[in-house]
């Protein structure tokens, strides 16, 4: 894979902002022909620079009123214990993102649920039920200022 050039970066940044923009829009933006833009986009996809396209939703309209960040500490930190946690956490639809961290927490989870009752059940029946959990701390989003 070659490094991305300035035109590739412009294309990727615009697609990141608007994943549904047309090849014509990208052509107008870059000054390249539509076919040249299309070829670049396909190369960026095949090289793994562009890993997919997603839909941004209004969580509240989907009934997901609660957005929480959970810092998780594990009891054991051996490779097998980390891999087991990472495998298991990936099976929970409530978890929208999971990051392995440095510092005072081992992992940070982003969780979306309809209400506090669902959050309580998620924590007690799924997260706390895992054998290797030492501690979970929850922080709830009061207001979203910026998300990109």
Description:
Strands 2-3-1-4 form a four-stranded antiparallel β-sheet. The protein is 38% helix and 20% strand. Helix 2 packs across helix 3 (34-46). The model has no long low-confidence stretch (mean pLDDT 95). It folds into two domains: 6-46, Winged helix-like DNA-binding domain superfamily/Winged helix DNA-binding domain (Arc Repressor Mutant, subunit A, Orthogonal Bundle); 66-140, Alpha-Beta Plaits (2-Layer Sandwich). The protein has helices at 6-17, 23-30, 34-46, 79-89, 116-127, and strands at 66-74, 95-100, 107-113, 133-140. By secondary structure, the chain is α+β, with helices and mostly antiparallel strands. The protein is built from five helices and four strands. The longest helix is centred in the N-terminal third of the chain and has 13 residues, at 34-46. Strand 2 (95-100) and strand 3 (107-113) form a beta hairpin.
- Within CATH, the superfamily of the largest domain carries the name Lrp/AsnC effector binding domain/regulation of amino acid metabolism (RAM) domain
| Total strand segments | 4
CATH architecture of the largest domain: 2-Layer Sandwich
Spatial order of strands in the largest sheet:
2-3-1-4
Helix percentage range: 25-40%
- As a whole number of angstroms, the C-alpha radius of gyration is 20 Å
CATH topology of the largest domain: Alpha-Beta Plaits
Strand content is 15-25%
Structural class: alpha+beta
User: How many helix segments?
Assistant: 5
Please summarize the sheet with the most strands: 4 strands, antiparallel
The separation of the N and C termini measures 26 Å
Low-confidence stretches: none
